[in-house]
Amino acid sequence: MIIDSADLDAKSAYKLLIGSVIPRPIAWVSTVSTEGVGNLAPISFFTVVGRKPPRVSLSFQPRSDGATLKDSFVNIRDTGEFVTNMATLPQVEGLHRTAFEFEPDVDEFDAAGLEKEPSDAVRPPRIKGAPIAFECTVEHIFSAPDGLNNVVWGNVVRFYVRDDLYLPSGRIDFGAIAPVGRLAAEYTLVDNTFVTPLDAEVLQERSGRRMERLDGKDAHYSPIDTPAWSPSGATTNLS
After folding, report:
1. CA–CA separation, 187 and 96 (whole Å)
2. What are the average pLDDT values for consecutive 10-residue runs of the chain, which has 239 residues?
3. Phi/psi class of residue 41: alpha, beta or left (left: φ > 0; alpha: ψ in -120 to 50)?
4. Was domain 5-225 assigned CATH 3.40.1110.10?
């Protein structure tokens, strides 16, 4: 099938993008407002864009109403600071709760039942229990003409790495982490690794096999087909 992007509205294009660019790492972003209210948001339009200085990129769409900026972006814009925390399986329920659109005066750490850990160099706290976190200051903000779609580049000024994960060689023992990534409107657990070449038997056994569902739902289930899904990346349901 060939699809002309000019024929698509924003929602339809978004469905194709999030179902095709997979898996995506999740930046579990913690910020504070100018009034000191804590905010959390899982951002899966997230990547690394530099090494010296180490730099990350976050892309923000508007809230589900299509007209209001997300609190996390407003906080980053107004304070110039944020923390990207690693999303892992032990905290996935809290992660999902923070995708809900709370009001700006709600501290989302409290709403999601998560504890704060003081950061070393920025005002926003880290998420207690997150194995890795980047404390960041804003380098640049790129805004679309509509002012509602924005990209943030942030310089990593401090790396937090849990002691047991930092190996003498200076690399991360990622095999000891249970990182969670994003598919379309669902999550995936990264629980295997390999280098090439793989044995032909392994390739044959894996080829054409559907992903295993860990939640017991039907093989073709997707939250995109439910009223709880929003093309803003937020959810309208806390469960």
Report:
1. 9
2. 96 96 98 98 98 98 94 98 97 96 96 97 98 98 96 98 98 97 96 96 93 95 90 74
3. beta
4. no
